[in-house]
Design brief:
The chain has 493 residues and is α/β, with parallel strands linked by helices. It has two domains: 274 residues, Glycogen Phosphorylase B (Rossmann fold, 3-Layer(aba) Sandwich); 194 residues, Glycogen Phosphorylase B (Rossmann fold). It is built from 17 helices and 15 strands. The structure holds uridine-5'-diphosphate. Uridine-5'-diphosphate binds next to α1, α12 and α13.
């Protein structure tokens, strides 16, 4: 690999929703002149993501992995538990977080081998030890949270105002309140908020508090979004962070030129061509794509309601069922209830990992039934596809608010509160099939409202594809980021 001068060290959190955009970012940075990129991650994650980098490396891009041994046994974890979506049971979450912290030592032991010395660390919000690491080595740490400025600002204002605590003074968790200091009137209930504000039964408060402390001290923040999507929120967030905020997304669009998009984050569980042929056989804007990301584990009765809702919508659909859902009872239901037989002419079920970006980019897809993870949300925006929003946990209700209320490109199924990961079985059916069907029908409707929504989504999709080109805002922000880091390094030397 060429030894270019500006060496960026990227340290993702080991989980698909956090690693996938950072791998995209690595490729994007490595394409800039005089930039070298190293991604520090663990062996199984290197195996998992290597395919997405192969073409780039072959074409001579200066990007590589640095392997950090994963301390599974030291942390009391089974072998192979090297990613947030591979944690077999929720009581192992504290062990997983302890293992993540131990990676600091592993990096320390290998740091001297990095040549040239990194000029900057870009690391995930939840790799909070990287703040101290960067300080020790006198280089700036830029935080990547994988979220929008809308989300960053909401969370910041929730932290500083503690407005959600009114709930503790006698009001209920489901009592709406307004988040102060935002450009729009945005309301939540406490039980829709991320675990920082509405904790799950697994205590991760210390881990999250450290992440918050190290976030506040970070030199700057890089955002997978684009200014035109949420300009007022970008402006406000920049004020908070002394201007050091760079929106360089959508990262999923960064390498459509040379790498099979179907390999993002995993090898797809189906033949991509077969899926494309199926999509080709349907009319433009007619297909619903239903996928809930990498971590959501909907309980079986709720999954059945979702299936029935898709069926009753009468639209053709692609439904991604993750292996964690593939309990015997789901397979039995699919086969024995007659569901698969009834919808066989208009379903394409993917058991496992879908080539999501490829699917969303197909002109037949007219609606994305999504859990509102930020990557999925932005991928939908980039493809100009309106969303049917069904948030589950973390920041997903915040993303829903942006999509439905601020941008006007989504229809909510009306989920009212979080179902934290691992707590799915505490709830039965929260959203009935009729409600799912109604939301799909509203999103796919070709009346005035539906057409307006579709038009806005398509317009945003066009803008998203332009901002990453020369002259676009994200393209410029990437240049400004690199210039800022160079300037910082020159001032130190
Ligand atoms: N993804 C995919 N195929 C799947 C499920 C997910 O390609 O079957 C990708 C998706 O395109 C996105 C990421 O995995 O880039 C999921 O990130 P998101 O933030 O949407 O959700 P999370 O998995 O973090 O909840």
């Amino acid at each position: 690999m060429a030894t270019n001068k500006l060496h960026f060290l990227l340290i993702p959190l080991i989980g698909p929703g956090h690693s996938i955009p950072m791998i995209d970012m690595a490729k994007l940075l490595a394409k800039q002149s005089n930039v070298t990129v190293t991604i520090a991650t663990t062996p199984l994650n290197i195996t998992r993501y290597h395919a997405t980098l192969t073409e780039s490396i072959k074409s001579g891009l200066p990007v590589r992995f640095l392997e950090l041994p994963f301390p599974a046994a030291e942390a009391g974890l089974p072998e192979g538990c090297e990613s947030t979506d591979k944690i077999p049971s929720m009581d192992l979450v504290p062990n997983f977080l302890a293992a993540v912290d131990k990676l600091q030592q592993k990096l320390e032991e290998r740091y001297e081998t990095l040549n040239p010395r990194p000029i900057c660390i870009i690391s995930d919000k939840y790799m909070s030890w990287t703040g101290e690491f960067a300080n020790n080595h006198h280089i700036p740490r830029i935080m990547f949270d994988g979220m929008s400025c809308f989300n960053e600002l909401c969370c910041n204002n929730l932290y500083t105002s503690k407005v959600f605590e009114v709930c503790m003074t006698g009001l209920h968790d489901s009592q709406p309140f307004v988040v102060p200091g935002l450009p729009d009137r945005i309301e939540f209930t406490r039980n829709q908020l991320p675990p920082e504000f509405y904790p799950s039964s697994i205590d991760t408060s210390e881990f999250r508090q450290r992440a918050r402390d190290s976030e506040v001290r970070a030199y700057g923040v890089v955002i997978n979004s684009f200014e035109e999507l949420e300009q007022e929120y970008v402006n406000e967030y920049k004020k908070l962070r002394r201007g050091k905020v760079w929106c360089i997304g959508p990262l999923s669009l960064c390498d459509s030129d040379n790498s099979p998009q179907s390999r993002r984050g995993n090898i797809a569980s189906i033949d991509e061509q077969q899926c494309l042929n199926w999509l080709d056989s349907h009319k433009p804007d007619s297909v619903i794509y239903a996928c809930f990301g990498s971590l959501v584990r909907i309980n079986t009765p709720q999954l059945i309601e979702l299936g029935l809702g898709l069926e009753a919508s009468n639209h053709p659909f692609i439904w991604v069922i993750k292996s964690v859902h593939r309990e015997k009872e789901v397979e039995e239901w699919l086969a024995e209830s007659g569901f698969e037989e009834r919808v066989k002419d208009r379903e394409f079920i993917i058991r496992g990992w879908a080539p999501q970006v490829v699917i969303l980019s197909h002109p037949s897809v007219g609606g994305f039934l999504t859990h509102c993870g930020w990557n999925s949300t932005l991928e939908s925006v980039s493809a100009g596809v309106p969303m049917i929003t069904w948030p589950q946990f973390s920041e997903q209700f915040i993303n829903e608010k942006l999509v439905v209320q601020v941008l006007g490109i989504g229809v909510s199924v009306g989920a009212d509160s979080v179902v934290h990961v691992g707590e799915e079985d505490r709830f039965g059916v929260k959203v009935k099939s009729e409600t799912v069907t109604k939301a799909i029908e509203k999103a796919m409707d070709d009346g005035i409202e539906g057409n307006e929504r579709r038009k806005r989504a398509k317009e945003l999709g066009i803008i998203a594809n332009n901002v990453i080109k020369e002259g676009g805002s994200s393209h410029l922000n990437l240049t400004l980021l690199i210039q800022d880091i160079m300037h910082h390094a020159n001032n130190l030397s």
